[in-house]
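Now produce a polypeptide, keeping tokens residue-aligned:
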Amino acid sequence: MTSAQPVIAVLGTGVIGAPVARNLAAGGLTVRAWNRTRAKAEALAADGVQVAGSPAEAVDGADVVLTVLSDGPRVLDAVRAAAPKLARGTVWVQVSTVGEAVDELAAFAEEAGLVFVDAPVQGSRQPAELGTLVVLAAAPPSVRPTVQPLFDLVGARTVWVGEDGASGAASRLKLVLNVWVGALTHGVGEALALAGRLGVDPEHFVDVVSGGPLDSGFFQGKSAAVLNRDWTPQFTVDNAEKDARLVLEAAERSGVRLDATEAGHRRFRRAAAQGHGDKDMAAAWFAGFDA
């Protein structure tokens, strides 16, 4: 990096962006953060994060820019707004789940002379807060020594999947992973919904799965959310619906039928229409019942 204490700009301080900025600052880096809703960024000031009033202000003089926004169009809008203050050669780490919009982002990076790193993360609020995300990364080997220390501060491990961020290999891997996340989420929700209506003690279902080959930390977390009716968002229904849509768009272009993902997308949309969009994705459980 270009200075003893590198300057990192984080554009987007939502469920993932805020803890990412906080963990980078805790690691001794100078961090500037911008968010469309300024209050979300201002909440980070107590953690030593400098709050910027615009994307351009945030990236001015930054060594590395991280975009952690909800989708491709918002990422592109933010980077375009920052462009007047983005020096050629600046490293841009794309952390958001953007699907195949990664191609448009990479094209903009090339046009602007930025070094593009495709690095979406696997994980939700709690792993982000604990710094235990899994970073899926594609970048030229020459830039890896620059970004790996950042990844080590926000994640438990980094999986390098390509040597060219513009290939979109990491973002496409994230789409594949989201097929599995959706299947697990809906599997838990539908099983518990049926248990309730059949008069089956849902705790018995959880007990049978626990400790066996079908168990996982994800299963335990989502089943506990449903049983306790605790919808504190780790990752919202609205975001899960967006991710499922991105998966389906990629599948259609690729000639693959994803019937289960399509059905799961409808469940996320139904739960959102019932008023649960800002709740944890486990609240797709509500989609099993009439509003």
Remarks:
- The chain has a mean pLDDT of 96.
- Residues 169-198 form the longest helix (30 residues).
- The beta strands are 7-11, 30-34, 50-51, 64-67, 91-94, 115-118, 121-122, 133-138, 155-162.
- The chain is about 50% helix and 15% strand.
